[in-house]
Amino acid sequence: MKNKNLKFCMDELRSLQNRSELEPEQRSRLEVAMRELRKLWRRANPTREDVYRAVRLVSEAILTTFKK
Q1: What residues make up the domain containing 37?
Q2: pLDDT tens digits for 13-27?
Q3: Under 8 Å CB-to-CB from 64, ≥6 apart: which residues?
Q4: Do 52 and 7 touch, CB atoms closer than 8 A?
C-alpha cells in the first residue's frame, strides 16, 4: 500500500515523536503506532481489518500523547 496519505501520517507521527516535552511512555506509544503503519505500508493488499487495526493504534497513540 503505497500512498501519499500514509506517508504524510508517518511524517506527522515522527514530528510528534521528536517533541522535547514528551515523556518516554508517550514516545513509545507513538513508536508502536509508526511500527503498525509500516506493517500496513508493506502489505500489498491490506484487508479492512488491517486498516482498522492501524487506525485504532494510531488514534490511541495520538490521544494518549495529547491527553497528558
Answers
A1: 4-67
A2: 889 888 888 888 888
A3: 25, 26, 29
A4: no
Contact by Cβ (8 Å): 66, 21: no
CA nearest to 38, candidates 58, 66, 67? 58
pTM of the entire predicted model: 0.77
Give me the number of domains the chain comprises.
1
* Residue 28 to residues 6, 36, 39, 54, Cα–Cα distance (Å): 20, 12, 17, 16
- 29 burial class (0-12, 13-18, 19+ CB within 10 angstroms)? buried
Cell numbers 497528558: residue? 68
